[in-house]
Amino acid sequence: MINLMVVDLYHGDEVVSFAEAAAAGIHGIIHKASQGADMVDPRYAERRGLAAAAGLLWGAYHFGTAAAVDAQVANFFNAAQPDAQTLVALDYESNGADTMTLEQARGFLIGVADRLGRRPVLYSGGLIKQELGDVSDPFFAAHRLWLPEYGPEPHPQASWQTAWLWQYSGDCVGCDPKTVAGIPGARGCLDCNSFAGTPEELAAQWAS
Question: Which of 109, 164, 158, 110 is CA-nearest to residue 136?
């Protein structure tokens, strides 16, 4: 069952009112903060303050590339400026010749955890399944999985029994609903995420 509580955004998504989104049942926003070693999302900082004013949970994700891991970690922290309440995540997905390797993903997750004192969330679907196959990997299993999968139900890689967060729609593909009041998104739809729990449980687990 889909339980829409979280949307993820980047600068190309139109936002009209986070307050309207909160009133419609959205509890958390995960926004792109950075990509690779030097790209920063230009809307991240502005929207962070607006979301906080609307009482929404805030998260930051980094889109991984083939650039040097240390430089990517530094870019993410400079862009995201995470505090104790900020969810942090690595977006590990295919990106042509600039795709982050599995070992780079490990290195990024370790680098962020060492600096922040808690493990990031891992956003990955097809790429982690491709790289790990049917192997259950204890390192990745220790990180919460944010799974993009646009069929009627989620199917995590073997390292996880369940996804912590399920992105059930993206790029106007997947199940409904794909829209949220106050956030038109891009092309009239959004990346929407289902959480299998209560708002209180989401808040308690958000930045844990």
Answer: 158
The first and second tokens of residue 70, run together, are 């240390």
Q: What are the beta bridge partners of residue 185?
A: 14
Q: CA-to-CA distance for 108 and 185, rounded, in angstroms?
A: 29
> Which CATH number belongs to the domain containing residue 187 in this structure?
3.20.20.80
In the chain the first and final C-alpha atoms are separated, in Å, by: 24
pLDDT in tens, 191-203: 999 999 999 999 9
pLDDT tens profile 96-129:
999 999 999 999 999 999 999 999 999 999 999 9
Burial 104-139 (b: 16+ CB within 10 A, else e): bbebbbebbeeebeeebbbbbbebbbebbeeeebee
Q: Which domain holds residue 150?
A: 4-205
Q: What angle do CA 34, 191, 166 make, to 5 degrees?
A: 100
Q: What is the C-alpha separation between 164 and 160, in angstroms, rounded?
A: 9
**Is the CB of residue 28 less than 8 Å from the CB of residue 56?**
yes
The total of structural domains in the chain comes to 1
Residue pLDDT, tens place only, 103-112: 999 999 999 9
